[in-house]
Design goal:
Blueprint: H1 11-27, E1 29-30, E2 33-34, H2 36-43, H3 53-63, H4 73-77
């Protein structure tokens, strides 16, 4: 497995990311614990093993239930 990408993060961006990370982890829970593979497969509509921007926006809006007032499309692109 590759090492996680480390990118310098501003305070504003970090403030946005913390709740998103918590909601993603919560959304990935199943009866047996966190199932990341199942979660990503569900939203990887293209089946290429990665989430395109539109697929990730779908995760943010549908699974995480974050409206544009809480996290804008421009912020998602960051």
């Amino acid at each position: 497995m590759a090492a996680p990408l480390r990118v310098p993060v501003s305070g504003r961006l970090l403030a946005m990311l913390v709740p998103v990370r918590k909601r993603i982890k919560s959304a990935a829970y199943t009866a047996g614990g966190v199932d990341w593979e199942k979660f990503f497969r569900q939203y990887d509509k293209s089946g290429d093993g990665a989430l395109e921007l539109s697929e990730f926006q779908s995760v943010v809006r549908r699974a995480l239930k974050l409206p544009p007032g809480q996290l804008s499309d421009a912020d998602i692109k960051l």
